[in-house]
């Protein structure tokens, strides 16, 4: 879960664009960076499955925010703007990766898979403490983009339906529909995984018992 209590980011001019002295803008941006970085990386991982990609998504979001700081710095909730940027970029990441994967004929090595596991974050920014259960998040990433984003914001960051809707730029009712459909799909897919694992365990047990009788 994302902890936003570390650093208070000053609210400037109640959501309207404003003019700041350079040193003021730099200080507010730095505070925003310290406050939001680990949460954005965790969000990026939940949607991409790659810590490298997650860092890139967060870095690109901050770079966009810095370039548009006259606007973003004056928002009541610049963190919501950053999350929307990460979510939008993660959708592009998935489409680009899908194209690449169609041209790959060999599986990645075991080491490459481990490098993107839930416990292998090399950023040193506490992002791994916010995510768990790789099977669950792999299933989330198989959902339609808006459903996956809704699940990540609602469950990973513990955001309300209203907050999730604000970040995604849609109505709360739409988020409720996304979450409902996502829960149904995840229950089916994760249940299938559990059933498959149980079936394999039963087969192994039967085999072991048969060998013992011999």
Short key terms for the protein model shown above:
2 domains; Arc Repressor Mutant, subunit A; mainly alpha; 214 residues
Give an overview in words.
With 214 residues, the protein is mainly alpha-helical. The protein folds into 2 domains: 1-130, no CATH class; 133-207, Winged helix-like DNA-binding domain superfamily/Winged helix DNA-binding domain (Arc Repressor Mutant, subunit A, Orthogonal Bundle). It has helices at 22-48, 51-67, 69-72, 78-102, 110-115, 134-141, 145-156, 161-168, 172-213. It is globular, with a radius of gyration of 21 Å. The N and C termini lie far apart (52 Å). 30% of the residues are buried. The model is unreliable at 1-18, 98-115, 120-125, 196-202 and 204-209 (pLDDT under 50).
| Strand content range | under 5%
Spans where pLDDT lies below 50 across 5 or more residues: 1-18, 98-115, 120-125, 196-202, 204-209
Q: Write the H/E string, N to C.
A: HHHHHHHHH
- Overall pLDDT level: 75
Distance between the termini: 52 Å
Major beta-sheet overview: none
- Count the helices. How many? 9
Shape: globular
Number of strands: 0
Number of domains: 2
**Which class do the helix and strand fractions yield?**
mainly alpha
What gyration radius follows from the Cα positions, in whole Å? 21 Å
Q: What does the oligomeric state look like here?
A: single chain
Helix fraction, binned, reads: 55-70%
């Amino acid at each position: 879960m994302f902890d936003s209590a570390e650093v208070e980011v000053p609210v400037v001019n109640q959501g309207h664009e404003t003019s700041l002295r350079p040193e003021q803008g730099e200080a507010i941006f730095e505070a925003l960076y310290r406050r939001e970085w680990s949460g954005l990386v965790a969000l990026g991982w939940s949607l991409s499955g790659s810590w490298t990609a997650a860092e890139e998504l967060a870095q690109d979001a901050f770079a966009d925010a810095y370039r548009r700081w006259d606007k973003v710095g004056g928002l009541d909730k610049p963190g919501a703007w950053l999350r929307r940027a990460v979510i939008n970029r993660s959708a592009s990441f998935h489409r680009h990766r899908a194209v690449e994967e169609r041209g790959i004929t060999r599986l990645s090595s075991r080491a490459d898979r481990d490098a993107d596991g839930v416990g292998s974050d090399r950023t040193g920014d506490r992002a791994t403490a916010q995510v768990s259960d790789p099977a669950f998040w792999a299933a989330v990433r198989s959902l339609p983009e808006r459903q996956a984003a809704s699940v990540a914001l609602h469950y990973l960051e513990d955001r309300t339906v209203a907050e999730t809707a604000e970040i995604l730029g849609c109505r709360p009712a739409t988020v409720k529909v996304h979450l409902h459909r996502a829960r149904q799909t995840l229950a089916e897919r994760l249940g299938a995984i559990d059933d498959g694992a149980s079936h394999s365990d039963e087969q192994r047990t039967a085999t072991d018992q048969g060998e013992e009788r011999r």
